[in-house]
Structures are given as structure tokens and as C-alpha cells.
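One such shown below:
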Amino acid sequence: MAGDAAVASATKRRRQRRRLTEQPWWPAARRVFTVLFLAGVLALVVHQAREVEWPSVLRTLREYSPRVLLGAAALAALSHALYSGYDLIGRRQTGHRLPVRETVGTGFVSYAFNINLGSLVGGLAMRFRLYARLGLKADVIAEVLALSLITNWLGYLFIGGLVFALAPIALPPDWKLDSSGLRYAGFAMVLTAAAYVGVCVFSRQREWTVRGRLLSLPHGRLASLQLALSTANWAVMAGVVWVLLGRQVDYASVLTVLLIAAVAGVIAHVPAGLGVLEAVFVALLAHRVARHELIAALLAYRAIYYLAPLALALPVFFALDAHGRKG
């Protein structure tokens, strides 16, 4: 009886959400919220840009040592390699027979385009185009895409929850806020990630229908691999910024700010989080690091983590696309 009541309650909530989104005023309200959020971000970016000493930024960029740049580039390469491994999880789960080289190459191209041009172009369009060219069916591609998406945000929930709960960032003094809310959110995030792995381990129902598509639940070991890969990727990604900042700020703070900036970029729907990343870092760390040094580190980060992989991904994309057409 308790199970039936829970199912009925969940069904009722879904119907309420559906009725809300079907209201005639809902699309307009959502657009207004998006415009207001973007306007706020733009105002913050313009305000911060006016206070930046750009000659000092250029001087800081010129003063980067080859050792620091090579270290950041090595971490960036490791992060992209870890993300490319997400598609191997999809390969194992779906059982498709594409070679590992083509699977990893597709994951790398998709991620490079994703972070530079947005998820619709990279995460969705690129994967569907390349995998379809290489012979995968639409339902298999959709499952690989879903697993990649789950893997990415599973690690975010886990590592973000840990740093929010155990090492919350010291907010700027003039904010007059404490970190208790962030701490509670952190515990909830860790529990959510653990719940996913727990369901994969113990659930008797192994198949779920999501928007008309049948998805199979990964087994426990594969779910644990999802968690490990994604957690490592987010950790390494923050390491790139930490190295470029010259370790002036503790690593946990850099990781926390990067995670907050990632969510802000998703909400803003700005390709590559352009301006959002910088605004969040300046807002949260400018009281601990000189503003021009922050901006210089983030510009170097964009060049190393975003633009350089995109330049490498272009020939890989054309090679995979041509190979698919030939096949």
C-alpha cells in the first residue's frame, strides 16, 4: 500500500509539472527569466571588465613560464582523455561494435565542440552525426549520449558535494553571507550521487523508459566507473586553473568556484560560458588574488583547455566523417 501511495504521489507531481509547462504564460515567463539572467551576467561582466588593468593582464600572460604552461597543457590533455572515456562506458553498456579508436575519437570531438559551441552542437549534434556515419542506430546513439550526460553530472554531484559540504569557500567579506546553505546543498549532492550508484547495484528493475526510449540501468561496477571517471575529470579540470593561478589560492576554493561557474554557464546558455566563467571567478576570488592575475589565468585556461583541443578536434572530425562515408 505504501508503494502504491508513493507511485500515485509521484504521478500527481508529474502531472502538476506538466500542467505548469502547458500554461500559455509559461514559455514567455521562461524567456523573460533567461533574458533577465543574461542581462545580469552581461552587466556583471561589463562592470568587472572596466576595473581590469588590461596592460597588467598582458604582462602576466607574457610572464608565464614554459613549465607552468606545459603543466597546465598536460592536465588539460588528461581531462579531455578522461571525458573521451565516457563514450567507452556507453560502448560497454550498449554492446556496440565500433572500434575503441573511433569511439574515443567521437567522444573527444564531441567534448571539444561541446565546451566551445554548446551542448546542442557538440554533445548532441556531433555525436549523432559521427555515430550515425559510423553505422550506429539512433536508439543506441541516444543511450550512449544519455550515459555520457549522466556520467558527467554524476561526478559533478559527488565532488561538488564533497567540497561544498567539507570545505565551503570563504565568501567575500562584503557579501555578509555564510556558507551553511552551500554545506547543506553539498550533503544533498553527495547523497544523490550515492543513490544513483546504489540503484545500479541493488535495483531489480534494470530497464527504464525515458521519453519513449528504453534505457538499461548499468550494473554496479560500471556505475562506479562512471563516478570515478567523472570525479577525476572535474578534479583535473580545476587543476588546470589552479596551476595557472600559481597556486595562490587553495585547490579546494578553485574547484568550488569552477563548479559554480559550470552551473552558471549552463543556466546562461552562453557558448563556452563566455564571460560567465570570468565573472564568477572575479566575484568570488578577487578579494584573494589580484584581478589582472585572475583574468590572465582564465584567458590562458581558455586557450589551453578550449581552443587548442578544438583545433585538434577539427581534423579528427573530418577524418571520422570521411571514414564513415567511405564505410
Notes: The longest helix spans residues 291-326. DSSP finds 13 helices and two strands in the chain. The mean pLDDT is 83.
